[in-house]
Design brief:
The structure holds two protein chains of two kinds.
Chain A (H helix, E strand, L loop, with lengths): L2 H19 L19 E10 L3 E6 L7 E5 L2 E11 L1 E8 L4 E8 L6 E5 L4 E3 L8 E11 L4 E14 L1
Parallel strand pairs in A: 2-10
Antiparallel strand pairs in A: 1-4, 2-3, 3-8, 4-7, 5-6, 5-9, 9-10
Chain B lengths: L6 H55 L2 H16 L10 H12 L20 E3 L2 E3 L3 H6 L1 H13 L2 H26 L6 H21 L10 H29 L1 H14 L1 H5 L6 H24 L19 H19 L1 H19 L3 H26 L17 H8 L1 H4 L6 H29 L1 H8 L5 E2 L4 E2 L5 H4 L8 H8 L2 H11 L4 H20 L17 H10 L2 H9 L1 H25 L4 H27 L5 H26 L12
Antiparallel strand pairs in B: 1-2, 3-4
The chains are: A mainly beta, B mainly alpha.
Chain lengths: 161, 671
């Protein structure tokens, strides 16, 4: 039997062996045990390092109608996480009667520096008739028992054509 | 004991048996005979199984290239396979699948989604039913395999192992082909080493950090695997079809384009009916071609097309293939009655006038068609009490449709109406015929009068603002497949050729060649699909005009039938392939980087790609026009062909890997 054939057969046997070993007969644990998904089931100790001072309402490109509300990520330092807390990055624009909440689910693997991202949203073109709006940026921690506001500030919403 | 089953080993064992007879006597002889009998039995089982496997493999894949294409397509689809619900009516099919796997048609509990009232369900007498029962039942074998694997192994590990072994098999087969074709030396050894290393590497990467798959997803996984297999088979059958008409290279190029660059790849692993419809059509087309080839080979049939004569022949190869061409009608009708009916109409229109009035052949074909419809009749009867009352057949954009009407009235479902069962059945049958004729009339009117609809369906969609739809997350046919612009070469070519003379020859000789029969069938079917769906556009979540998905393989077939394209593929394939790879690997990354830097959201990505696709189509059209005017610009053609094909792959990869991540986590996470 030549070397290439030995290598191929060895590879096949190894993979088949691992597959069988992962089953109940051998019970070899190869995968990371998934935590049950329980959003809002915990809390965290976190410091907001910096937050954006402005967000933008950018006219959509490539023939797409509407304006996209965008904001830079918030820099945070996570000290401690218990369970699976849920963090919401909200931008509220009262003048447009519009609230956008970008929700992130946390667990203990995310301790340290973290960039909390905002998820953009689209507003119809006919609703935008000013060059600038004033909004509120808010970071809240949600759990089953309460809603804790972590950070809140006024934010300028700049309209960009 | 020796366990190598070649002839030498058997001889060796036999030789040793002779020696034992002389030395150790009769007692040990029986022991040896028993041992040899074991070996012989194992050898027979092994050889028989291998023979059957080869025979089945050959009938499905044709040859080794077909198998390579199949494995490559599956490996590609697995790269971006996400476990989750992409469109919300998949909840309905998945819950229906759970119900069928538990032995009933009606839905009792929502395993997937928020409840049983999901798009596409329908209620008869207070009982909720799903849709696409053909798709559901045909997915059962995939579920059984998943459940068996889950008993003996961890499913995620098994899937990772299966994917890795698929890649290993692929590299070995490609190495063998390269060796056989004498393109490279020692390719087989190299493929063994590289394939093994890559296989083990990918296996390890997928397992690292992965979590077990929750058994609740088993039904959805089975539906997804079914569609992936179907999508890969669309490419294989296109390969086999064009292999017979224009040879292996053209067949392989066309099959590869279908699976890797058209929206067939986008919809692979999304359990909708469209890929299955495409497979049904293309299988029917292949069988039709084989039937006409067999007809051509029959020496006594020099005059057959439009000929009114029956022949007393045994069930010929032609009849068998012809009957097989009608089997997908029943299967598609079981999935969605409208789709089955469209295929049936196209077959009737092309097959019957061009096959000659052979009574036996016609009867056999009709019998095959009726047999194929039995599963649908049974399902309809169980649900509505009427075999011709398809529950949601004529619903083009979700909802209850016919079933809800019958449910509301109750007369059809309960058999409590004024007419008898037979008259109701006949009414339903005539109703189906009437409905399809109305659809066709609407379609013809739309094509001739609503040119804006034709434009945004086929050329440029952009932002759609309708009462019930307002989005830009959709592409036109050309934007979805820039390569489709090559089709304009057909009217340009016809304009330059003597079309009157060609038509006259066909009618004078009363015959169509096998390939011309397939051409006619593809055109009639494509027009039927366009007529039925066009008036209803725009619809929700079309994305890549998914209701016209079957037109993409038809387009690839049409492109492959153009002689100048074939010349480029045969003579300039290195340029085509090189440009394709560079565009995917470099251009694709540059495009993605641009989208990332500009923070483009999903509809912006779709429209940015639409502009890119149209630009490439414009470049490609330059070659088509110059070529039609008689200039030999093959290098330009090869470059634009490679770019246009690559654009499709780039769209599939960026959309499925990045922009449609909301579907769920990867089944085989590489990152």
């Amino acid at each position: 039997m030549n070397l290439p054939r030995i290598v191929v057969i060895g590879t096949i046997m190894l993979i088949l062996g691992v597959i069988i070993a992962s089953g109940p007969i051998v019970g070899l644990t190869l995968l990371t045990e998934a935590e049950d998904f329980e959003p809002r089931g915990g809390t965290m100790n976190v410091t907001v390092v910096s937050a954006p001072e402005k967000a933008t309402l950018e006219a959509a490109k490539y023939s797409v109608e509407g304006y996209h509300l965008r904001a830079a990520p918030i820099e945070m330092h996570i000290h401690d996480v218990v369970g699976q807390p849920t963090v919401s990055y909200d931008i509220i624009i009262h003048e447009l009667n519009h609230t956008r909440s970008a929700v992130t689910f946390f667990d203990s693997s995310l301790i340290g520096d973290y960039h909390l991202k905002f998820s953009s949203t689209t507003l119809d073109s006919d609703r935008i008739n000013q060059d600038e709006y004033t909004g509120i940026l808010k970071v809240v921690i949600l759990n089953d028992e309460d809603i804790r506001t972590l950070f809140v500030t006024d934010i300028r919403i700049e309209v960009m054509e | 004991m020796k366990r190598d089953y070649n002839g030498d080993e058997k001889n060796y064992d036999n030789a040793r048996t002779d020696k034992q007879i002389t030395q150790q006597g009769i007692g040990q002889l029986s022991q040896s005979v028993r041992r040899n009998a074991w070996v012989l039995t194992v050898v027979i089982i092994f050889e028989t199984t291998r023979g059957y496997a080869r025979s089945i493999g050959r009938s499905i894949f044709g040859d080794r290239l077909g198998l390579i294409l199949f494995c490559a397509a599956l490996a590609f689809y697995a790269l971006y396979w996400r476990v989750g619900i992409f469109i919300n009516d998949t909840y309905t099919v998945a819950n229906g699948f759970v119900a069928v796997s538990e032995g009933q048609l009606h839905l009792e509990r929502p395993v997937y989604g928020p409840g049983l009232d999901t798009p596409g369900t329908f209620v008869i007498d207070g009982v909720t039913y799903a849709r696409n029962y053909g798709q559901i039942v045909l997915a059962l074998p995939f579920l059984w395999i998943i459940q068996i694997v889950d008993v003996v192994a961890d499913l995620r590990v098994a899937l990772a192992g299966g994917w890795s072994l698929l890649l290993l098999g692929l590299s070995l087969m490609i190495g063998n082909i390269i060796d056989q074709e004498a393109i490279g030396q020692n390719s087989r050894s190299l493929a063994s080493f590289i394939g093994s290393v890559v296989t083990l590497g990918i296996f390890g990467i997928v397992l690292y950090g992965s979590t077990p798959i929750d058994p609740v997803w088993h039904h959805l996984l089975a539906l997804q695997i079914q569609v992936m297999v179907a999508a890969a088979l669309v490419g294989v059958v296109i390969y086999r079809l064009l292999n017979r008409i224009h040879g292996r290279k053209i067949g392989l190029a066309a099959g590869s384009i279908v699976v890797f660059t058209t929206p067939i790849g986008f919809w692979a692993s999304i359990p909708k009916r469209h890929v299955l419809v495409a497979l049904g059509f293309i299988v029917s087309t292949y069988c039709l071609l084989r039937s006409r080839e067999a007809l051509f080979d029959e020496p006594s049939n020099q005059q057959w097309c439009f000929g009114l004569r029956s022949q007393s022949i045994t069930l010929s190869e032609m009849t068998l293939w012809r009957a097989l061409a009608y089997l997908p009608v029943g299967i598609l009708a079981w999935i969605n009655a409208l789709e089955g009916l469209l295929l049936f109409i196209a077959l009737l229109t092309v097959d019957v006038p061009t096959a000659g009035w052979r009574i036996r052949s016609l009867v056999t074909t009709g019998f095959a068609c009726v047999v194929s419809l039995i599963p649908m009749f049974v399902t309809n009867t169980i649900i509505s009490g009427n075999p011709f009352e398809p529950p949601s057949a004529f619903v083009l954009d979700g909802g209850g449709g016919v079933a809800k009407q019958s449910g509301r009235g109750g007369s059809t479902a309960n058999g409590a109406g004024s007419g008898t069962g037979t008259s109701q059945t006949m009414d339903s049958f005539l109703g189906v015929i009437h409905k399809i004729s109305v659809y066709m009339q609407d379609g013809v009117a739309a094509v001739t009068t609503e040119l804006d609809k034709v434009f945004y369906t086929f050329i440029r969609t952009g932002y759609v603002s309708e009462p019930h739809i307002e989005d830009a997350m959709r592409l036109s046919f050309l934007e979805s497949m820039p390569l489709a612009i090559v089709l304009i070469a057909i009217p340009l070519g016809l304009w330059r050729s003597d079309i009157y003379e060609r038509t006259r020859v066909v009618f004078n000789t009363r015959r169509l060649s096998p390939a011309a029969t397939v051409d006619a069938f593809a055109i009639v079917y494509a027009l039927s699909v366009i007529f039925v769906y066009l008036p209803r556009f725009p619809m929700k979540a079309e994305l890549t005009v998914r209701y016209l998905l079957v037109l993409f393989p038809i387009t690839v077939y049409g492109i492959a039938r153009i002689s100048s394209v074939r010349r480029i593929v045969l003579e300039q394939w290195r340029i085509c392939l090189g440009v394709y790879l560079v565009t995917v690997l470099v251009g694709g990354q540059v495009f993605f980087l641009y989208l990332f830097m500009t923070d483009a959201v999903v509809d912006e990505f779709m429209q940015a790609y639409a502009h890119l696709g149209l630009g490439i189509a414009l470049i490609m059209s330059g070659w088509v026009i110059t070529n039609a005017r008689g200039y030999r610009t093959d290098t330009y053609g090869a470059i634009s062909l490679g770019m246009a094909a690559a654009a499709g792959t780039v769209f599939i990869l960026i959309s499925r890997l990045w922009y449609f991540s909301f579907t769920g986590p990867f089944a085989l996470p590489l990152v």
